[in-house]
Amino acid sequence: MRYISTRGASPSVGFVDAVLAGLAPDGGLYVPEVWPTFSRADIAGFAGKSYADVATEVLAKFVGDDISRETLTDMCEEAYATFNHPAVVPLTQIAPSGFIAELFHGPSLAFKDVAMQLLARLSDHVLALSHRTQTILCATSGDTGGAAVEAFRGRANTKIVAMFPDGRISEVQRRFMTTAGETNVRCVAVDGTFDDCQAILKLSLSDEHLKQSVGLSAVNSINFARIVAQSVYYFTTAVALGAPHRPVAFAVPSGNFGDGFAGYVAKTMGLPIATILVATNANDILARAFGTGRYIRGTVQATQSPAMDIQSASNFERLYFEGVQRNGIETGRAFTAFIETGAIDIPPQALAHMRETFQGIMVTEGETSRTILATFNETGQIIDPHTAVAVSAFHRTRGLDAPVIILSTASPAKFPEAVSEVIGERPPVPRRAQGLAGKPERFDHLPAEIEAVTAYLLTFAGT
């Protein structure tokens, strides 16, 4: 299995090199040279298998010969043994055709754990074999950082720097990062938005001297291993509701579009997905793109669902690449121009391809709050604001002749203030979050400038 860049100007690489690099040298994102597929019989065979077993089957399609099947099986079993629920991603019914997929039973109480626990083990394995070390730079809008710190803290071959927008994530999200005391972990509050953090990350990964100096890599959803790992729960939840014998639909709260694109991967591999509802908050660049055909950056607005406060969704580049029939030159031109102009006019053929799978829906702050309250009153379920955005999109959509799986991306305990303001009580605190408030925090402050972050990385990597 070989991987190519969405911008077409970098040589193909194997799975391991794609994982360690994160971003291609030409600034593009890695995708498989050819998409692997499952037959209907293969997918039907996932019924009754453990989550780790299905993950092994899916990952094996992308790993090729880079990692042995036995080693991959061990990694998956170890990764998902860290989850507090035996199903790893259980389903809860909230409506006749609506089911919540609980993705928050991992160490940091967010969906990012599903991929990050596996990615940490993949990285450890590869680095140990090659006698290498790496420095991970992570840009987070809230949950990626906590999941990355939980996965990589204390690992001998990896140092990690987690950047987050200062004052724009919840206290619990922040403390999952900043209370880690291991010497291989640093956290940085950036004076800016998540888009600023993400831009710094991409510039850093494009700096070949910096990459060589500190062994720089990334674990954001620009890393294709993250996307593959997230596609697994599309298979497990869909099969639990009757796939492949009937189609299913998904409602996905979306910011950086990694979760949404993971669904596209599952569909491309053969899973019968009728549609994917891409639910956004006021930062609706994706909803507008699918609706109008213009992918245009707006001003980031602070909302009660901060992990989605994004106006530049990295993984949209992967979808655009597929939409323009894998034309790397066209994709590179469009996204290089986007950096300067903040806008892309999606070609009609590409937009039609996108709409075959995706439908964008913007949900207001008022709708989010009302959905949290209505869900609690009607079902007893307490949901976090991000999940509420997707639940609202589900309730607003009519005519879907398929069960809808709503991805619940974080525990409500990570957003106690937002939830209690709506329902009048604080959500229960899972054992893993208990005690966070009493632990000392450790983080630095930096301006939203590439030069400041570069100097910080060079100093940290040298210690």
Structural description of this entry:
The chain has 463 residues and is of the alpha/beta class. It has a domain at 91-109 and 224-423: Rossmann fold. It has 19 helices and 15 strands. It has helices spanning 15-21, 40-44, 51-63, 69-80, 112-130, 143-152, 171-178, 194-205, 208-214, 224-240, 258-268, 285-292, 316-323, 328-341, 348-355, 365-379, 385-396, 416-423, 450-461; strands spanning 3-5, 30-32, 91-95, 98-102, 134-139, 158-165, 185-191, 216-217, 248-253, 273-280, 294-296, 343-345, 358-362, 404-408, 444-447. The strands form 4 sheets. Strands 3-4-14-9-10-13 form a 6-stranded mixed β-sheet, sandwiched between helices. Strands 8-5-6-7-15 form a 5-stranded parallel β-sheet, with helices on both faces. It has a two-stranded antiparallel sheet with strand order 1-2. Helix 7 (171-178) links the parallel strand 6 (158-165) and strand 7 (185-191). Helix 3 packs across helix 4 (69-80) and helix 4 packs across helix 5 (112-130). The longest helix is centred in the first third of the chain and has 19 residues, at 112-130. The chain is globular. The two termini are 37 Å apart.
Summarize this entry quickly:
It contains 19 helices and 15 strands. By secondary structure, the protein is an alpha/beta fold.
Could you say what the CATH topology of the domain at 91-109 and 224-423 is called? Answer: Rossmann fold
Unreliably modeled segments = none
Main β-sheet, in a few words? 6 strands, mixed
Helix share bin? 40-55%
User: What is the average of the pLDDT values?
Assistant: 94
